[in-house]
Amino acid sequence: MKILKPILLILLVVLARGSFAQTPLYKDASRPIDQRVEDLLSRMTLKEKFWQLFMIPGDLSDGSARYKDGIFGFQVSTKSQRADAAAQMMDYNPGSSAKEVAQNINNIQRFFVDSTRLGIPIIPFDEALHGLLREGATVFPQAIGLAATWDTTLVHHVGHAIATEVKTRGIRDILSPVINIARDVRWGRTEETYGEDTYLTSLMGFSYMSELEKMGVVATPKHFVANFGDGGRDSYPIHFNERLLDEIYFPAFKMAIQKAGTHSIMTSYNSLDGDPCTGNEWLLRKKLKGEWGFKGFVISDAAAVGGNNVLHFTSKDYAESGAKAINGGLDVIFQTAYEHYPLFWKGFEDGSVNLDAVNDAVRRVLRAKFELGLFENPYVDPELAEKSNGTAEHRALSKKAAIESFVLLKNDNQLLPLSKDIRSIAIIGPDATEARLGGYSGPGNNKVSILKGIENYLGNQAKINYAPGCARAAVDYVTIPSSCLSTVDNGAVKEGLKGDYYDNITFTGEPKLSRIDSQIQFGWTLFSPDEAKIPYDWYSVRWTGKLTAPESGTFKIGIEGNDGYRIYLDNKLISESWTKETFRTILKDFRFEKGKSYDLKIEYYEPTGNARVKLVWNAGVKNDWKEKINEAVKAARHSEVAVVVAGINEGEFNDRALLSLLGHQEELIQAVAATGKPTVVLLVGGSAITMNNWKDKVGSILDVWYPGEAGGDAVAEVLFGKYSPAGRLPITFPVFEGQLPLYYNHKPTGRGDDYTNLTGQPLFPFGFGLSYTSFEYSDLRFDQSTFGPNDSTTVHFKVKNTGKVAGDEVPQLYIRDVLASLARPLIELKGFTRISLNPGEEKEVSFTLSPDNLGMLDKSLNWVVEPGDFRIMIGTSSKDIRLRGFVTVK
Question: Which phi and psi angles does 270 have, rounded to 5°?
């Protein structure tokens, strides 16, 4: 018996260990995913659940112990990124190679799989709007340029190439594309979209996202549901009714979910009817997850959950913001630093976040991780990443996409294409050499500028006279640098001015904050100078110190910013704008002596918030734009033809009140055209440009958008006729900003749409684009012209190349519901295709008209196909209709 007892104990230990060592159900790949999700969820602590709903930029370099409870995922930091997390989010030129990124992600995944209690892998994420934002990744034309190709097959190929470069690095979630409808081209992020039309955007978005999802990369279309409001201003509040949302702003997202199979959606920063989209229960739970059956996860835009209280003032703190967001239907909180997590964890810990909402969110995240196969295959082959990124094939595809994207806006007397026998050509403008790639771009591989592309194409056969001309932006003054400012602090002289900050607008009492500000260059638009001590909308500040002149002369000095300031030099008031009115720049002349120091005092107050103040002068500013234009004119006079490359500045939180070319570029174009030399203007940018002051003075205008890393070669081949341009505008170009918002598919006005001093017509309409050849349309017919509401018909017609060169054409099908129970758009795009035709060649083109194309929302917001006549229009743009017929729904 004494011998048996130890044996029995050993057996019990062995059996016990065996039972504990049994593979958990969630790790059994043969089990249904829903079972695996529930099993894993049942094993998780609340802390572990929280971390599956929290994502940040970073890696394990700040200490792996921080992440013992797991995490949703990282935007993986790389060696060239700056230390602060907010900077990491905006640093899109990391220095690590594809192989190094893959190795880094493998190491991170290994920690979470092997060293955390439950072994839940992460989802590494990044941005890839038109190419992954990483070193060595191929940069394709900007999204608006891809839309301008009107070629869904091409966008499928681009999506596949990007997905390959992404996945081989181990990145499994892409916070792209932008499928917002850009109905106001003042919005700075128009370049990131597929344009103003719901149908075009839906198909372009589907073409891109479906390739990502097929490759096992999560597509995250954004920003749900709109990301700009009145005036085309980024993140402005919207007050759209359900009909407008269902008809215009929802369809691209519905197609992303229901047809492309996207696993994720990103919310927008703004509010919908006063309720922030980040936690809008009607938007996220009722529409997205309820009516549409979305099974994936919803993530916020960066730092937007905290923005519920910071920006919208709908929560008292971050914990309440997090609770409202998760309870309202958000699944993943996207923040910019690890240190933010306690602010949100508090709401989970105290029960403010509903546990059912937490479990639902975690289920969605876990389901995505299982469906991506991360539990079975969390690692990638770094060697494959190196071979698959920045390939020759992907570069060739980028060039092809650029060629297809170019839109010929004007071509008087067939100035383009330029002769291949040209002996001299002037290339003018800084954009000719910069090779700009557009917003959300990686650094690109061996970028080819427009100038370099023309040099590559012409070789030594022609003399190229390059002149930079004037810059895109005119610099008339600069912020006074810290080296010219000084103050005494604790007996030591320091650069900058002493700032005394008061919690009132009268400079009374003791300052609540005193500090040295190296420069006076502040934009406290959403915050206060110090959140803990100063109200964001009720304070004043007095800066004092010395201003030392770097040279002698009479310079203009003043403030760029809000009114409510005084400036004193040597105790003399030199500038005052004390009544709060507006934002402006006021400069005054002051005679400075080199090396002399002047007592400087600035007083500023802010009673409502949104403060901006910048101390500026024109000392050291070399304002030589006239000389630069003269140099460009000289280059044009010594050339057979002049090509002026002009561009705009735009981007995230860089909306444009004025759509004209900035700086003195218009004067540059006018001066070059005045030489009498044939003048071509190439437009670089991602949105509409007004051109009333120079359009009629030049022979040709070609919009090349942001054409990608091989863009210069593509431009040269189109300029000299190797390819005929066939891009079409995905946005409407207005004549003047006062017409905005201006889009082609508006509903009847009930009267007129003109102004007293301008018509309501565009400068260039949606769908517009010229060619080097000509096309004839004929023989419109229908398989059946009368059919039932649940039936379809096919539209047939012929297109013939009647010109002398091969070219692409983009036939477009538009409809109009002739008589409906509710007002319907005057014209709606419902079909398009891109075809190639040799001279004299003719092809038959067919489009299917289905109930989806003819449907509308009735008064009860139900989709119906109403009986009656529909006008069917075939054209080369929304204005240039070549064929017209009617079908009747019985």
Answer: -80, 180
pLDDT surpasses 70 at 8:
no
- The answer to whether 470 and 628 are in contact (CB under 8 A) is yes
User: CA torsion sign, 617 to 620 to 621 to 624?
Assistant: positive
Separation of CA 14 from chain center: 59
* Cis amide prior to 741 (ω within 30 degrees): yes
Evaluate whether 775 touches 802 at the Cβ level (below 8 Å): yes
Gap between the Cα atoms of 133 and 34, Å rounded: 34
Whether residue 85 is predicted with pLDDT greater than 50 in this model: the reply is: no
C-alpha closest to that of 171 among 120, 106, 91, 92: 106
- What element of type H or E holds 812? strand 812-817
- Backbone φ and ψ for 431, nearest 5 degrees, come out as -65, -15
Give the Cα separation of 259 and 256 in Å (integer): 6
Q: Please list the helix, strand and coil fractions of the chain in percent, rounded to the nearest 5, in that order.
A: 30, 25, 45
Amino acid identity, residue 673? A
Within 10 A of 66 (CB to CB), how many other CB atoms are there? 14
pLDDT the model gives residue 701 = 99
Compute the residue count for the chain.
890
Give the strand order in the sheet containing 828-832: 786-787, 881-889, 868-875, 812-817, 828-832
Positive or negative torsion for Cα 814, 818, 821, 827? positive
Residue 131, phi then psi, degrees to nearest 5: 135, 145
Show the beta-strand stretches assigned E in 653-774: 679-684, 700-703
- For 355, residues 6+ apart whose C-beta sits below 8 A from its C-beta are none
Strands in 54-58's sheet, in edge-to-edge order, are: 73-76, 54-58, 333-334
Q: What is the CA radius of gyration of the chain?
A: 30
- Residue 12's pLDDT band (boundaries 50, 70, 90)? very low
